[in-house]
Amino acid sequence: MTNSGKFIVVEGLEGAGKSTVIAAIQRELEEQGHKLKLTREPGGTPMAEAIRECVKHNWENEFVTEQTELLLMYAARSQLVENTIKPALAEGTWVLGDRHDWSSLAYQGGGRQVNRDHLNAIRELTLNGFSPDLTIYLDIDPKVGLVRAASRGELDRIEQSGLAFFERARETYLSLVKRTDSAVLIHAEQSIDKVREDVLIALRKFLGVTQ
């Protein structure tokens, strides 16, 4: 597995600027000569994309339970990891992910306050310790992020979860960063040029290159 690829994930609340950062990372990795595959969660395979639609849809006459949401997220993640991410890494392709497991820890664990023992049992079943080589977390005040998200158009079901939900999610993200050596926090309320600069500095440190 010496020629295996690396798995890099960008995490953050709504409106944190993940798409812009992912584009910058993609350019850098391709310039460094790495074969690259982009993924998103939930989604990334035909079945996982169908699950994404279920998760984000506004079910007007039906309450989506916290347990259902959690199970759908990990069902989609299992499909993506086993059918796309692991095979790509094994053949030497690098994978750049728009969200991964931390999103469930933050959104379902922190935001929805799902029992952590139950969540960890599902994580163990689906991931069995699989984790990214580098996680870049874009930190933003939920008030600012939600305004940005609303400016993009109609909010989906999860984006409508309310400020307290996203504040709990942010607290979980910050806790995860503090105890994870392979994670970097980027202040996402800076100018986009400064955010991009900070991200590329962190990425190049991970790659072991200077520029």
Entry summary:
55% of the residues lie in helices and 13% in strands.
What can you see in these coordinates?
Helix 1 (18-31) packs across helix 8, helix 3 runs parallel beside helix 5 and helix 4 (101-111) crosses helix 7 (163-178). The longest helix is centred in the middle third of the chain and has 25 residues, at 66-90. The chain is globular, with a radius of gyration of 17 Å. The model has no long low-confidence stretch (mean pLDDT 95). Strands 2-3-1-4-5 form a five-stranded parallel sheet, with helices on both faces. The protein has 211 residues and is of the alpha/beta class. Helix content is 55%, strand content 13%. It has helices at residues 18-31, 46-56, 66-90, 101-111, 116-127, 142-151, 163-178, 192-207, and strands at residues 7-12, 36-40, 94-98, 134-139, 183-187.
CA-atom Rg in angstroms: 17 Å
* Shape summary: globular
Would you identify the regions where 5 or more consecutive residues have pLDDT less than 50? none
Number of β-strand runs: 5
Q: Which sheet architecture does the biggest sheet show?
A: 5 strands, parallel
If strands are numbered along the chain, what order do they take across the biggest sheet? Answer: 2-3-1-4-5
Give the helix level as a range of percent: 40-55%
Residue fraction in strands: 5-15%
Strand/helix succession: EHEHHEHHEHHEH
Quaternary organization: single chain
Q: With helices defined by DSSP (H or I, 4 residues minimum), what is the helix count?
A: 8
Name the average pLDDT: 95
Secondary structure category: alpha/beta
- The span between the termini is 28 Å
